[in-house]
Amino acid sequence: MTDDAPPARIPRPLDPVEIRVLGALLEKQQATPEYYPLTLNALVAACNQKSNRDPVTELSAGEVEAALDRLRKHVLVWKTGGSRAEKWEQNVEKRWTLDGATKAVMTLLLLRGAQTPGELRARSDRLHAFATLDEVESALAKLAEGLEPLVAELPRAPGQKEARWANLAGGPAEEVAASAVPAPAPANDRFRADRESVLFHSKRMWEAGLVVASAGNVSARVSGHDAVAITPTCISYDVMTADQVVVVSLDSSLPIESDFRPSGELPTHLAVYRSRQDVGAVVHTHAPFVSTLSVLRRPLPPIIDEMMVYFGGTIEVADYAFTGTDDLGANVVGALGDRAGVLLSNHGNLCVGRDLAEALHVALTMESTARIYVESLRTGSPVVLPEGSLRAGRAMYEKRRKRPSR
Questions:
Q1: Residue 150 CA: distances (Å) to CA of 92, 168, 369
Q2: Treating both helix axes as pointing N-terminal to C-terminal, what angle do 133-144 and 100-112 enclose, rounded to 10 degrees?
Q3: pLDDT tens by residue, 332-343
Q4: Are 347 and 357 in contact (CB under 8 A)?
Q5: Integer CA distances (angstroms), 154 to 9, 20, 163, in order
Q6: What is the DSSP string of 102-140?
Q7: Given the residues 18, 119, 265, 358, the one annotated as active site
Q8: Which terminus of the chain, N or C, has less C-beta within 10 A?
Q9: Where does the pLDDT of residue 159 fall: very low under 50, low under 70, confident under 90, or very high at 90 and above?
Q10: For the residues 195-203, what does the mean pLDDT come to?
Q11: pLDDT over threshold 90, residue 52
């Protein structure tokens, strides 16, 4: 090796405190650049942050300062002069030749340990916008190439469906793999069952073709709490995990013990729950045939018996309002009435039920019925059920609403 050779990307295995310091500096540079570089006190707070950290630490100022001194000897951090106090900034962006995508991925791996590409994409919204999972995998491949790779794909454990990646700042891949066993669900997550139920039914909605990618949303009342659990925003159902489901207070509309942002349609869900005490779950879809009727702004009349039994009558069309607004919520509540579903002008449908299974059943039945209606319009004029059947079906609907959920 000559004197002109560039310094090693990672001169030695870094210890956990050094890794946390680098991760915190990288994160704050991207997420809150207006407060970067960081004072020692700000860096200590960033290292010990409760959210987006695994594990959560309680490092002292002395421990962080000592780590900074060690990192500075290897020119991995810089000390800069501030107007009132010395500040610190990272130098690994240059040493590791990071671009926007690879910097975001490396930051998350330093702060949260081994993760799947789907988890990295879901957790990167404040750092870098990954449009697809392929973009995350491309960034990982870039970090893993060359004689001094910064990340490695870990061997899959038995029953593990997705590959997990880890940073190599702390040592060789073999050592990382030995310490990167997926952590169990937090024992103190009092909403775990609610999150898992929302995840399960949202994946069923996606698998049934009622939505694509991250479109649509699902929510349910949280048992024993004045709150709802709702799918997160902008996370595709194929990679969504239970810990990403957001619990929100019905009173304040604010997240409770959740690190992710709720669906943008949260105001509409909350409006329905607040106006209908009988509703235990909400499913909003962009299914093809209900969406066809929604852009035509055409109600779905009771043309088959199941409509009266499960929907309670004609599916009306809510007046148009922009997605995620309080106006849309008010329009939906007005058009929904006491029925189990409503069409949203130019925006699919919304279905309710006593629980998630029932709300999803309503959504599936509505899409099937909408298809029958749209197809029949091509060949003639669909005939609405006779008045006697409408009354009988409505009576059955009201009786079902009074029964406890399954």
A1: 11, 5, 53
A2: 80
A3: 999 999 999 999
A4: no
A5: 21, 21, 7
A6: HHHHHHHHHHH-SB-HHHHHHT-TTT----SHHHHHHHH
A7: 265
A8: N
A9: low
A10: 94
A11: no
